[in-house]
Amino acid sequence: MKPFAPSPDDLAKAADLHDRLLSIDAHVDIPLDFGGGGDDGPGCFDLPKAARGKLSAAALCIHAGPHRTGDAAGRTAGAAEQRRRYDIITGIARDYPDKAAIVLSPDELRQAAADGRFAIILSLQNAEPLAGLDDLDAWHERGVSMLGFNFIGNNSWSDSARPYPYVGGSLSSGGLSPLGKAGVERLNDLGVIIDVAQMSAASLADILALSRVPVVASHAAPRARVDVDRNLSDTELRAIAQAGGVVQVVGFASYLVLRDPQTRVRLTALWQEHGLAAPTRLSDFYSVNDPATADWDEERFLHFLHEYHVALDLDTPIASVADYVDAIEHVIAVAGIDHVGIGSDFNHGSGVVGWRNVGDNLNVTAELIARGFSEAQIAQLWGGNFLRVWQQVLDGARPAGSHPTPMKDS
After folding, report:
1. Any alpha helices (H) in 290-384, and if so which ranges?
2. How far apart are CA 86 and CA 235, in angstroms?
3. Which Gene Ontology BP annotations are present (predicted)?
4. pLDDT at residue 315, rounded to an integer
5. Concatenated DSSP letters for 117-163?
6. CA-closest candidate to residue 44, choices 359, 357, 316, 344
7. How far apart are alpha carbons 254 and 246 in whole angstroms?
8. Do the two domains 8-258+318-395 and 260-312 of this chain adopt the same fold?
9. pLDDT at residue 237 in the model
C-alpha cells in the first residue's frame, strides 16, 4: 500500500475547487438496511457525508444480488429486491425535497446543483430479474438513466466477467444473448446509458459493436493493476474510449492492489474444505468459478459465500488514495483524459485508506492536485466526461414507438 498524507494546502485547494465544479460518483450501492438519507449513519453514503465531501451527484444503484439464472423464484426475489432499493433511493428525494432530487438529464443535474440539492441519478444493475424488453421501458419510465446487464453470474441477457456456475449454470464467457442484443437497441432508443461494468469480454465487444452511442463502465479498474477478468484490459479500455465512452475507475481495494499471500492460504483452505479445486493464482480466487458449485443448493452456496468474504478480509486496508490515483493515471495513459471518471462502488466495496466514504472525496482531489492535474482535468474526471456521454446518449434516443415489437424472455 502506498503512503498517503494530503497536505493542508492541497486539501484547501480541493475544497475550493469542489465549490466550483460538478462532482459525480458514477456508482454507489444502497443497502437494504439503509437507515435514511438524512442521517450521518454508519454506511458510506448519505446526504450529510455527500455535503461533507462536496459531492454534487451520484448514480445510486438499484441492484439485485445473485439468484440462479432462469429460476422463477429467484427472478421474483431479485425483482422484489430491486423494487425495495428503488423505494429506498427515491425516498431520499421524497423525504428531503429541499436537499435532494432525482434528475433525468445533465441539465436537470446542473439545475439541482444550482439549487443546492444533491442530484440522484437512478442506475440499475443486473437484468436477470427483468422478464423482457418491456421491463426496460418500465424502469425507464420510473426514472432509470443507466442500466447494466450484469452482476455476479451469467444471465439471460449477457455473460458476466464472473460466470459463477452456481448462478449462471456454466463457465461460459460468451457474449450477449438475442435478448441482450435487442436490449442494446432498446436502451439506445430510450436514451438510457448502457453500463458495461462486470461484463464478459465478449459481451463488451458485442455492445460496442451494436450501440449507436457511447457507453459507461460505471465502476471498473485496469487489469494492468490486478489481473482478473472483472478488471478491464488495456485493449478494452481503448475500445471503450474509441467508441467515445468513459471508464469510471472503481475505489474497490482488491481490484487496485492484489491481496497478500496469506489471503491465498486462507482461501485455499476454504476451497479444500468444500471439496473444490483450489486455483494456483491468488487473482483466480476473486471469483467462485468451480463447476462443482453449479450443483449446490442455495443454503450451501450462501454459507460458502459468507466464509469466502470472511477469508478475503476486505476490511483490512491494502490500498490507499495514492494507489487509487495510480489506477486513474493508468487508464488516462491508455484511454485518454477525456474517457476517465470516478465510480467508488461504496457500500459494496471496502474503499481505500483516505477514501472510506463519500465524505472523504476531497482526499482524492487533493491527491490529483498534488500530482499536477489541472482544474479542468479534475473537473473532467469528477463528472465532466460522464455528463458528456450522458448527453450524447440522450441525443441519440429515438421517439417512443420507433422500436420493434417487444421480445419476451423465454
Report:
1. 298-312, 321-335, 361-370, 375-379
2. 35
3. proteolysis
4. 84
5. -EEEEEEEE--TT--BHHHHHHHHHTTEEEEES-SSS--SSB-BSS-
6. 357
7. 21
8. no
9. 99
Nine-digit cell string for 40:
450521518
For cell 473532467, name the residue: 380
Domain boundaries, the chain: 8-258+318-395, 260-312
For residue 82, which of 47, 121, 32 has the smallest C-alpha distance? Answer: 32
Q: Between the CA of residue 8 and those of 14, 15, 366, 367, 375, what are the distances in Å? A: 10, 11, 9, 11, 18
List phi, psi (to 5°) of 192. Answer: -100, 130
Q: Which set of grid coordinates corresponds to residue 179?
A: 435478448
For the CA atoms of 27, 126, 154, 397, the dihedral, rounded to the nearest 10 degrees, stands at: -90
**Looking at residue 379, what is its pLDDT?**
99
Low-confidence ranges of the chain (pLDDT < 70): 350, 401-410
Backbone angles phi, psi at 208, to 5 degrees: -65, -30
Whose CA is closest to 384, among 373, 396, 371, 399?
A: 373
Domain at 260-312, CATH class: mainly alpha
Round to whole Å and give the CA distance between 131 and 136: 9
Residue type, 254: S
Report residue 398: phi and psi, to 5°: -110, 150
Q: Write the CA distances from 147 to 62, 161, 187, 196, 279, integer angstroms.
A: 9, 16, 8, 9, 32
**CA 209 distance to own-chain centroid:** 22
Amino acid identity, position 162: R
The pLDDT value given to residue 406: 35
pLDDT at residue 404, as a whole number: 41
